[in-house]
Amino acid sequence: MDQIEKTPCVGCQGNATNNRLSHHDERTIKELVNRINRIEGQLRGIKGMIERHVYCDEILNQISSANAALHGVAKLLLEKHMKSCILEQLQEGDEQVIDEVLKTIFKMMR
C-alpha cells in the first residue's frame, strides 16, 4: 500500500491560519508534477514560437493543447481532492466543505 504523505495542494492549503493539507500519495504527486513539467515545456515552446514569428494559427493550436493539458491536471487534482480531502472533511462532519468545493468547481467552469 502506498504511504500517505501530507503535502500542501492549492485546493487544500487554505489560508495562512488554516493548516489543511492534502493527502495525496507519492504516485499522484509525481503524476501531477510530471504533467506540470510538460506544460511548462509547452509554454516555453509557445514563447519561442512567438519570438520566432511563427504563424498565429500554429501558436493558437499550441495554446489550445496547453490549455487542454492544464485542464487535465485540474480534473485529476479535483478527483483526488474529492476522494481524499473532501471525503475526510465530510466524515468529520464538516459539511461547509461542500460549498467550498462547489465554489472551486464553478471557478473552473468559467
TrEMBL record:
Matches recorded under Gene3D superfamilies: Metal-sensitive repressor, helix protomer (1.20.58.1000)
Protein name (record): CsoR family transcriptional regulator
CDD domains the record matches: SaCsoR-like_DUF156
Pfam family, one: Trns_repr_metal
GO MF annotations, alphabetized: DNA binding; metal ion binding
Species, as recorded: Desulforamulus reducens (strain ATCC BAA-1160 / DSM 100696 / MI-1) (Desulfotomaculum reducens)
Superkingdom to which the source organism belongs: Bacteria
GO biological-process terms attached to the record: negative regulation of DNA-templated transcription
InterPro entries in the cross-refs: Metal_Tscrpt_repr, Metal_Tscrpt_repr_sf
